[in-house]
Write a structure and sequence with these properties.
Ferric Hydroxamate Uptake Protein, Chain A, domain 1, about 725 residues, 22-stranded antiparallel barrel, 39 strands, Immunoglobulin-like, about 55% strand, mainly beta, 5-stranded mixed sheet, 3 domains
């Protein structure tokens, strides 16, 4: 006996319920079977071999709510069906951008912003004492070590020197000036919930300094009760004790991070000089939140840091006496106190008034013995900076207008020690700004900004900015933006750090003016899912920045070994592209980021490469994460040849790392290995450099410490 079973075909067009646009890549499956397909470039679904009777078809797509519809066959076979999917706001728009002040979602902000969230916990496992490792998770960003002895460092964006990057904490500019080369080595990641990057000129947002871009570090709030104890140790002498507590009781909440980080000196290549400094650091970050009502909120925060770091001749690290052979030593004694106040009050549903104030005191004492004359040189001083701002945010549907005024002061007073000429600095800046985000249609959003800054005894700076977002489809977008920037001249640059500020003259404000820049970037991004457990994200960005009449350090020619800063005729130019690729498959995520950078000086009709800037760099990782149990990651980084200040070229090199975490109930055990192929700059040559045959003037272009293994545990209560 033969049985004949009827087979049916289901056809439908999948569209967005709001825009009515067709959606590509939607998965449709007959429930309880493996019979299904994905929508094509026209949004069309065709499923064959459906039996007679009642069936349920399940529709899923990243960024949309799952939909289950019931159909009866053969009655549905000849119908023209349109399926409408609704956006899943919780899934798609959960990341709110704060750096641009508009508090728009990452998918709807015209300014190109990159955000790190989940990477923060991974970076904290690798190094809980500082954010240096966390910063390197983004393409186009390089952490550049500025001292081979004391391990100071800054952040370079798109090849430009670290002095052109502005670092913010919750929108407060706290980390410039004398503290610039130490900031990323002192800021801990454990109380952060989000890191935002804006690459390219961003001075319109927060004032001078953001020529290359800005990094906004956003603190955790007491939205949930959390207690974390984190212990970490490495085989080269690091030991970290960290505790974080977050709690909310009715209308009052608080967070507090307490840390003690230590490192014994480490001489990786046994040349008699430390490759990692000896340090002891204490850090306390308390923050209070008062939720007076749904309309009014006040937060008060502070940072208290005390650190001593010293490096140099290991005989001196072992408390032996200075002599004509063993003399080189560098000691940094650092103290920092900051306060942050933020008050928000809603006048009505459309208007929000925000008042901000911060106060920063940074004291650093630098002692160095750099020559056989045994004369110890001291440079120390106190930097005091304040930031005050009042702004109003007006919202109407998706349109946001922010306008405000601010006052920023930055003062440095050198301690009277050995200097015949004091290098005091005093900058006061009054600013007014406006930023408007609005929709110019269903597919186009614009963000326009304008800032007018007056630097007392200097000049006015007018800084326009424009960004445009094109939403071609739900999955395909383009952003184009550009703006202007400036930076006040200061002695606190990487070049002066190499001299420990010895014989560096103060800024001559009558003859040295601020650096000014302009630039832009454009990108195209695509993201889609393949089934329920697979996704792809691709972004291609192009950038270009030009800095006119840059400030450089030069020998005065008046006396041997005396230096001053001056503007040079010409410009610095950096252009290139960044390619970002991310692929997720079930519990695996693969990321790769490639950056091409052509950064050059154009001085006196000559063109030369910017030092320590690789033309090609590649970084990425492969992560396996089983929530609540396992996290296993492998990472890699490649840097092509770099140009040193003497014109020589360095070698290309690769570095690799791995991390493993295992969680059982409230306990997490972790182990991490960095640079397990033991790549070291000393494999290619000595760190000792003239004139004293010490590492003082050595440029760092590759790892110094070699392979590093650390392990520890976390307890969450």
């Amino acid at each position: 006996m033969n049985f004949l079973f009827s087979q049916n075909t289901f056809k439908a067009i999948i569209k967005d319920s709001i825009t009515n646009e067709t959606i590509v890549g939607v998965t449709a499956v007959v429930k309880g079977t493996t019979n299904g397909t994905s929508s094509d470039s026209k949004g069309e679904i065709i499923i064959s071999n459906i039996p007679n009777g009642e069936v349920i078809i399940v529709f899923t797509s990243v960024g949309y709510k799952k939909l289950e519809n019931k159909f009866t066959f053969p009655d549905s076979i000849n119908l023209s069906i349109t399926i409408l999917l609704s956006s899943d706001v919780d899934e798609l728009d959960e990341i709110i951008i704060e750096a641009t002040r508009g508090n728009k979602t990452i998918d709807n902000i015209p300014t190109r912003v990159e955000v790190l969230t989940e990477e923060i916990d991974e970076a904290s496992t690798m190094d809980p004492s500082k954010i240096a490792h966390l910063i390197t998770h983004s393409t186009g960003i390089q952490v550049q070590q500025t001292s081979a002895t004391s391990n100071t460092a800054n952040v370079r964006i798109q090849g430009l020197d670290g002095r052109y990057t502005q670092i913010l904490k919750d929108g407060f500019p706290l980390y410039g000036g004398f503290s610039g080369s130490l900031s990323i080595m002192q800021i801990p990641p454990l109380d952060l919930r989000q890191v935002e990057y804006i690459k390219g000129g961003a001075s319109t947002l927060y004032g001078g300094g953001a020529i290359a871009g800005l990094i906004n570090l956003i603190s955790k709030e007491p939205t949930k009760e959390e207690t974390l104890l984190h212990l970490n140790a490495s085989h080269i002498g690091a030991f970290d004790v960290n505790a974080f507590v977050s709690k909310k009781i009715e209308k009052i909440g608080f967070t507090i991070l307490a840390q003690r980080n230590s490192q014994t000196y480490f001489d990786a290549n046994a040349d008699g000089f430390s490759d990692l400094p000896q340090l002891t650091k204490y850090n306390l970050n308390p923050k209070l939140f008062f939720y007076f009502s749904d309309k009014t909120k006040l937060s008060l925060g502070g940072t208290f840091t005390d650190e001593v770091r010293q490096g140099g001749d290991v005989n001196l690290m072992n408390h032996e006496h200075v002599d004509s052979t063993h003399f080189y030593k560098e000691v940094n004694d650092i103290k920092r106190v900051t306060t942050q106040l933020k008050f928000d009050h809603k006048l009505n549903n459309n208007n929000l008034v925000t008042v901000k104030n911060s106060f920063n005191i940074f004291h650093r004492g630098l002692e160095i013995v750099s020559s056989k004359t045994l004369q110890e040189y001291h440079f120390s001083g106190r930097q005091v900076s304040t930031f005050s701002e009042i702004s109003n945010t007006f919202r109407k549907k998706e349109n946001v207008l922010i306008a405000g005024i601010n006052y920023y002061s930055d003062n440095f007073w050198e301690d009277s020690l050995q200097s015949a000429i004091m290098r005091n600095e005093d900058y006061q800046t009054f600013g007014a700004f406006a930023n408007f985000v609005f929709d110019a249609g269903k597919k186009v959003s614009l963000e326009t900004g304008f800032r007018a800054d007056y630097v007392v005894d200097q000049k006015y700076f007018l800084l326009p900015r424009l960004s445009i977002l094109f939403k071609w489809t739900k999955k395909l977008t383009t952003r184009i933006g550009g703006g202007m920037g400036y930076r006040n001249p200061t002695i606190f640059n990487q070049e002066a750090e190499l001299f420990a500020y010895q014989n560096v003259l103060p800024i001559d404000k009558k003859n040295v003016v601020a650096e000014q820049s302009y630039g832009g970037n454009a990108d195209i991004g695509f993201k889609t899912n393949i089934g329920e457990k697979c996704f792809i994200t691709i972004n291609q960005m192009f950038f270009c920045t030009q800095i006119d009449k840059p400030v450089i350090i030069a020998d005065t020619g008046l006396s041997s070994g005396v230096y001053s800063f001056k503007n040079v005729d010409g410009y610095i130019q950096s252009y290139g592209g960044e390619t970002f690729f991310k692929f997720g498959f079930y519990d695996f995520v693969f990321f790769a980021g490639y950056t091409y950078t052509n950064a050059t000086n154009h001085f006196a009709d000559t063109i030369s490469d910017l030092t320590l800037t690789p033309h090609h760099s590649l970084k990425g990782d492969l992560l396996y994460a089983l929530p609540g149990k396992w996290r296993i990651g492998l990472d890699y980084e490649f840097k092509s040849s770099q140009t040193l200040s003497n014109g020589t070229k360095t070698k290309d090199f690769w570095t690799y790392g791995a991390v493993v975490e295992y969680t059982w109930k409230n306990f997490t055990l972790f182990g991490n290995v960095e640079n397990y192929t033991n790549v070291r700059q000393t494999n290619y040559g000595s760190l000792n450099s003239k004139p004293y045959d010490t590492p003082q003037f050595t440029e760092v272009w590759a790892p110094l410490d070699g392979i590093v293994f650390n392990a520890g545990f976390k307890i969450r209560l």
